[in-house]
């Protein structure tokens, strides 16, 4: 279980194609994971999700703990049963949400206490509790509880968050006792490369079945993400999956894959879909725009998703203009398919030995010109 097999490597970059085995099936990497915050990828059924070619999804420990609570999920047999998704699931630890959404009352070495953004009740979260909740939810991959520092933050603040994250990783590993579940550690360190390096060394020592790069996409300029990923690339082990948390833009995905990253997640495709925006090549189209009023072409002629196969831009424009739920579902389906298609195209390109030519946005203005 949790076997990671590299099947092909790019001769010019650290990009690779691999398989990762979990109790709910084997997934191919590079892989984009849609985000199902509350045990639902918003607006999309589990079978529709499967049709987008998603192989693994992410659910949020923090949100599921607040509602409906892990006891309900455990009672029905875990998250796979509860949401009728029988492929792999990853749950985050709640660390990121605690620090970004909760009204923090107290944070110390023991853990965090905060007011629920939902109903104001007082909640405490420690590494042990975050792991217990995730064991009850029953995902295939779970994350260690971490402290995600905001951006910007001083070196001293980020150092302190790193120290706590490493201490909490130790406690997360101690608390975890479910063999059919893989625990991943999280590297923090903000935009300070010395702290990233220190964190990478410490997390690697735990010899876990996977490692995540956290604390990105918290407001820093995009070039900082590239710098962090490039710096960490040679420091991390090759024989385990590496997951860049919260990233789902194609340029950042391509640059990260070139630096040996395998897994991604992001709310972007469904969030944009709910706002009437479609991902087309490396552009974003607002379907509310009047230019689509009598445009009867498919959204994207090269896409095989349900929205592009069965409906026109004009019809989706009409749905979005009238706040029809179907419009949001169709755009979400297309955007999710778009990122699956992009991940798949990177895999094919790595296998064919042309990844560094096809997906090198650092060399060319656009990656839209390539055949994917
Ligand atoms: Zn489509």
What features would you describe in this structure?
- With 372 residues, the protein is α/β, with parallel strands linked by helices.
- It contains 15 helices and 16 strands.
- The protein has helices spanning 46-51, 61-66, 70-75, 79-83, 95-100, 127-137, 155-175, 193-205, 222-232, 250-258, 268-274, 306-310, 313-321, 325-351, 355-358; strands spanning 4-9, 16-22, 25-29, 31-34, 57-60, 89-92, 103-107, 112-115, 122-125, 141-143, 182-187, 211-213, 242-244, 263-266, 277-280, 283-286.
- The strands form four sheets. An eight-stranded parallel sheet has the order 4-14-13-12-11-10-6-5. Strands 1-2-3 form a three-stranded antiparallel sheet.
- Helix 11 packs antiparallel against helix 14 (325-351).
- The longest helix is centred in the C-terminal third of the chain and has 27 residues, at 325-351.
- It is globular and about 60 Å long.
- The two termini are 32 Å apart.
- It binds zinc ion.
- Zinc ion binds at residues 299-300, 303, 305, 307-308, 334, 337.
- Zinc ion is lined by residues 299-300, 303, 305, 307-308, 334, 337.
């Amino acid at each position: 279980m949790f076997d990671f097999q590299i099947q092909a490597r790019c001769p010019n970059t650290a990009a690779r194609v691999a398989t990762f085995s979990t109790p709910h099936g084997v997934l191919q990497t590079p892989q984009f994971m849609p985000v199902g915050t509350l045990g639902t990828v918003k607006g999309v059924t589990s079978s529709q999700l499967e049709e987008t070619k998603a192989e693994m999804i992410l659910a949020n420990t923090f949100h599921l703990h607040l509602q409906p609570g892990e006891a309900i999920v455990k009672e029905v047999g875990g998250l796979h049963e509860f949401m009728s998704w029988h492929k792999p699931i990853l749950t985050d630890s709640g660390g990121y949400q605690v620090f970004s959404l909760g009204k923090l009352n107290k944070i110390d070495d023991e853990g965090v206490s905060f007011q629920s953004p939902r109903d104001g009740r007082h909640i405490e979260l420690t590494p042990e509790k975050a792991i217990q909740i995730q064991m009850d939810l029953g995902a295939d991959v779970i994350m260690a509880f971490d402290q995600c520092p905001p951006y910007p933050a001083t070196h001293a603040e980020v150092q302190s968050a790193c120290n706590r994250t490493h201490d909490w990783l130790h406690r997360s590993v101690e608390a975890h006792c479910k063999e059919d579940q893989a625990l991943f550690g999280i590297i923090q360190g903000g935009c300070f490369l010395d702290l990233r390096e220190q964190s990478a060394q410490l997390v690697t020592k735990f010899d876990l079945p996977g490692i995540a790069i956290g604390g990105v996409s918290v407001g820093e300029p995009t070039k900082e993400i590239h710098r962090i990923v490039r710096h960490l690339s040679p420091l991390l082990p090759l024989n385990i999956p590496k997951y860049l948390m919260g990233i789902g833009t194609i340029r950042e995905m391509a640059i990260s894959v070139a630096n040996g990253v395998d897994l991604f997640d992001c709310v972007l495709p469904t969030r944009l879909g709910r706002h009437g925006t479609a991902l087309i090549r490396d552009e974003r189209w607002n379907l509310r725009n009047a230019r689509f009023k009598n445009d009867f072409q498919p959204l994207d002629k090269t896409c095989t998703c349900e929205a592009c196969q069965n409906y026109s831009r004009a019809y989706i424009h009409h749905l979005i203009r009238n706040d029809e739920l179907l419009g949001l579902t169709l755009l979400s389906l297309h955007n999710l398919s778009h990122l699956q298609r992009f991940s798949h195209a990177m895999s094919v390109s790595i296998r064919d030995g042309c990844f560094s030519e096809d997906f090198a946005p650092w060399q060319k203005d656009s990656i839209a010109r390539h055949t994917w």
